[in-house]
Amino acid sequence: MLEGRLRGGISTDTHLSFLGGGYWKHGIPALCDEIASRPELSLSVWGTPSSDHGRNQIWFEWASQLGALLDLDFVGLPVYSWGCAAGHALRMAARLTGRSVVVVPSNLDRERRLVIDTYCGYRELTGALTVREVAVDAATGTILPAALAEVLDDQVAAVYLETPNSWGVIETAMADLIAAAHQHGAEVIVGVDPISLGALASPASSGADILVGSLQPMGIPLYAGGGVGGFIASRDEERYARQFPTLQVSIAPTRVEGQHAFGLTLFEQSSYGSRELGNDWTGNSVYLWTVRNAVFLALLGPAGMRELAETVVANARQSARLIAELPGVSVRYADGIFKEFIVDFSATGKSVAEINAGLLERGILGGHDLSGTHDGLDGCALYCVTEGVTEDDIRELTAALKEVLA
Amino acid sequence: MTIRRYHSASWDEGVVYELGAAGRRGVVPPASWAPAADLPDGVRRAADADLPELAEYEVRRHYSHLAQQTLGMMGVSLFGTCTMKHNPTLNEQIVARPEVAGVHPRQDASTFPGLLGIVHDLEDELKNLSGMAAFSFQPGGGADAAYLHAVITRAYHASRGELAQRTQVVTTAQAHPCNPASAHAAGFEVITLPLEEDGYPSVEALKAVIGPQTAALMLNNPDDMGIYNPHIKEFIDAVHEVGALAFYDHANFNGVMTRLRARELGFDACMFMLHKTFGAPKGGNGPSVGAYGCSEELAPFLPGPRIVKNGDGYELIEPAQSVGRVREFFGNVQQLVKAYSWTRAMGTDGLREAADISVLANNYMEKRLLDIPGVTISFPGKAMPRLEMTRYSLGEWSADTGLSTLDVENRLPDFGIDAWWTSHEPWIVPEPFTPEAGEMWSKEDIDEWIDVVAHILEEGRTDPEIVRTAPHNQAVAQIDGSGLNDPDTWATTWAAYRRKHARP
User: Fold this and answer.
1) How far does chain B reach from its first CA to its final CA, in angstroms?
2) Is the residue at B468 inside a domain?
3) Does B235 reside within a domain?
4) Which chain B residues touch A126 with a CB distance below 8 Å?
5) pLDDT of A245-273, one tens digit each?
6) Scanning every residue of chain B, which has its alpha carbon at the shortest distance from the alpha carbon of A320?
7) In this complex, how many residue pairs, one in chain A and one in chain B, have their CB atoms less than 8 Å apart?
8) pLDDT at residue B61 greater than cutoff 80
């Protein structure tokens, strides 16, 4: 019955897709499916080091491999999503600094921004945070240190940045931005695409304090948004560790010399341990996704992650150039992007909605409509190109666009 | 009784970083068809990430070994406060289809009406079961649904100009910790009602703390001990009289499915755990879903996107006074499909039968457990008969043996029985444990579980060391947790471990 209801549904598997915006179509190694489907793991309940040793080890290996990619060595177990991770991290910074203003980019993706706004609370209540925007430079698509300087003062608890940012552009002045925030005593939180970190420097190497991001691109299906999950990581410094709202798993000895087990650390600071006196709250989340991520990273390895990122950025930039050759169509910041880019159709006389309807008739899911999300984006769409998009696919897209725009 | 002889697989398995060798590859990504991108210094990573290097067969072998070294629900797991039950493989196969797994959340609603229709119809099922007017599936777990309630409470009182005055949320000592914690995270002051001699808070105690400053009441019923507060309607009436909202954390729904409806009790909102009660697997802590249902009055505040029927199709809307988001998009959609499939397969009669079986099983368990010397029930002779789960105490056994509920928790896996649930904080009874049978487990399973508990408690009297030093039949021995909270020794990553515990 359910199969019948689903039959004929369009997806990124049935259609060539250029949708992104924080939820990305990357290849999923078959082994991710096999291991995550094993009933020992998929049906695991709560478990202790004594009952679920293997699963706890997978949690630890997930944190270890993710931490290696991030250049950070303290990693909390997953939270619900990237947006939730950003929200928790901003609240960590507020507790760390005793300040109540947070700075976020003006072009932040709407879904994440709405989550962050929720986490920042209402001014009538205790602990509310005020969100202040830093403008994105229209010429480069990045945040300029001068723009950040304008919004920094000694009320700022944290600056939240993303790289690649919500327009797909790599923030090139990251070290200067981090230094400027630190000069004002603010914590720096950066949202990252873990796939990009195979080839791009982690912002932690430039001094970012807390990194957050999405688990989804590392071996997790899209599930109409049900594939999301978030991580929070910092340097292994007690000051930060004591503020994590998550559970954490640590390697530890056993009663037998030379053996390892894996147990929860800093449980008492969670809501399980201290109810409302704990850091925010935790609970059932998306822990099974650690299995998919751990298998994904172990399969790709250091060279595979580098090559994957290099393929993605090369495919995406070349796609951007080819799309920009279409009459009336331009692409913004094509030389500075990782895998997403803004395509400007405003000079074509057609709306993104009309164009996407035309593409859909030709078996293509066009990039998502950015009209109305930020000044200067009417008639623009965000396109995402990953390792699975071929040169033929781009030819198919440009041919279809020619027809639709004719 | 015969106790099963169990032993976990034990592979002496290293950490993934200790396996493989330099240069080995598992999956090689496709090469690009385009010229290499120019990544300037400062943007490019200085050195490859420090990841392990393994062939694909080694990765498969390693993670298969780790799965084998996980007991999970491969034996009997009567894990209270969660309701563990059968998770049909069929539902896993359905959600692996591209019409579920491959759908991008930003696709136009017209492109996946089948999936949206299933989610929409699940909402109808839950509306029927709760009497609520609308549901949001956005929360990523039960605790996130409690947080959503606190968030909606903020917006509701703010819309009436009363938020500055209504700064307190009232809960009970045996509400799940997520209720006080999420209310606090949303900015509210938390007032916790103590339990009185019958095992639940009194209406008088509630009335003494509520007033124009109260924003909401948030509680479980049955509570975390399995005790049902028979005065719940008076509680709800009292908070409504002062203008506050009442939220029902329905984590413990299993014993009352189809027997009561949250809205008819007077609650303004409720939460169901679809990853437990509604047959979707728990995954060792998610992906989970806290399905949040609310009254007509609160529905305009729900997060978007909401799925509404429009002719033959569906459209996505943002409610008029929406709080925005507590998480991106629609929630864990694949779990919603499984919950819908389970609910429809059960039907109303099936759900009622499941509730009745779970109450019967729990009371059968109580009869047998209380025959074991040293096991006592929380609030004996005071509270009503328990519904789907019960909190017990090993206080007497502990006084006799010097052992704790955590020692038993470590010994259970030696017989293929999942570690039991002790209690959320605070521990009201000494040395607690909280079993719950649910409707799935057979009488033989329940008997086996009780036989093992009886066996371990007897071991505690005759050979306490074997319990104290458990487990003995697992992949590794008992963890030495003495350094887990010490910054000089904890290590959540291999890099931190190598730095702090470098071997000579």
Assistant:
1) 51
2) no
3) yes
4) 167, 187-189
5) 999 999 999 999 999 999 999 999 999 99
6) B34
7) 589
8) yes
